């Protein structure tokens, strides 16, 4: 049974304003989720704008299908990784698009309703796969990776300063018992990190959970792929907008946008959520929206000189 959880789309008006959807346009939503951003794109590009929406989580895609049913054939639902958007468009004989949106990370449903161990609250199976077709689960990673690899994951994907110590405690723990559920991991992290080294504003296991999730889902690799190949499927003047939720993602987005001479900045600084949004949606706290525009081929050439 899928628990019903409301997902409030982050920076909804801001992101869709930047995309400026028009009738007749084709827009790709790489993170369909519950369909919140796509709904707004479809509304503003009525009567003939289309959305090709990607989500690799079957449960999310089902919810989006339900939520966007009224738009009928104007939406195409694709159960796949946004890293392969260019290939999937080619198969559909769509050469170029009018806008591309990524709203990275997890939906509220995944975090609190999917029971896949994304949250350190409660006790859930240590799965963490957004796409159930993937092989590697968080439990498997914790039970089999070397201490050095685990430390690298915690350090690079979680920016966790106690990475080595936590990895050593994980390896010690699994000598006696396999990791199965999230409470075991929370316990081990709590034991590994002495009180004086604990962060003040976040839970002591926050970064370890983030790191495992990124590793299990290959999140940064997927992002790099679409940042590299996404611009090539944009029509001249089309906008590529990305909402990211932590500094590792935001850094990749910023660099890829700056280093691509065919793109011009639409947002000089990242757009962040205003007070009103933060009051109703704490998830928006860490969100950063950056957008760029595909320039004319002539300007792109100039940029390369
Ligand atoms: C923050 S939610 C999107 C919410 C959506 N914009 C809305 O307003 O309802 C992120 C979604 O992206 C999906 N996702 C994350 N990484 C993905 C990837 N590499 N490929 C496809 N979907 C991905 C997740 O499964 C999740 O449903």
Ordered list of secondary-structure elements with their pairings:
Blueprint: H1 12-19, E1 26-29, H2 36-44, E2 50-54, H3 58-67, E3 75-78, H4 85-91, E4 97-103, H5 108-113, H6 138-144, H7 147-158, H8 163-174, H9 182-192, H10 206-217, H11 219-229, E5 234-244, H12 247-259, E6 263-265, H13 275-280, E7 288-294, H14 297-304
Parallel strand pairs: 1-2, 1-4, 2-3, 4-5
Antiparallel strand pairs: 5-7, 6-7
Helix pairs in contact: 1-2, 7-8, 7-10, 8-9, 11-12
Bound molecules: S-adenosylmethionine.
What does this structure look like?
The protein has 305 residues and is α/β, with parallel strands linked by helices. It folds into 2 domains: 12-109 and 220-304, 3-Layer(aba) Sandwich (Rossmann fold), CATH 3.40.50.150; 117-218, Putative methyltransferase TM0872, insert domain (DNA polymerase, domain 1, Orthogonal Bundle), CATH 1.10.150.170. 43% of the residues lie in helices and 13% in strands. The chain contains 14 helices and 7 strands. The protein has helices at 12-19, 36-44, 58-67, 85-91, 108-113, 138-144, 147-158, 163-174, 182-192, 206-217, 219-229, 247-259, 275-280, 297-304; strands spanning 26-29, 50-54, 75-78, 97-103, 234-244, 263-265, 288-294. The protein has a 7-stranded mixed sheet, with helices on both faces. Helix 8 (163-174) crosses helix 9 (182-192). The protein is globular, with a radius of gyration of 20 Å. The chain starts with 11 loop residues before the first helix and ends with a helix. 45% of the residues are buried. Residues 298-305 have low confidence and may be disordered. It binds S-adenosylmethionine.
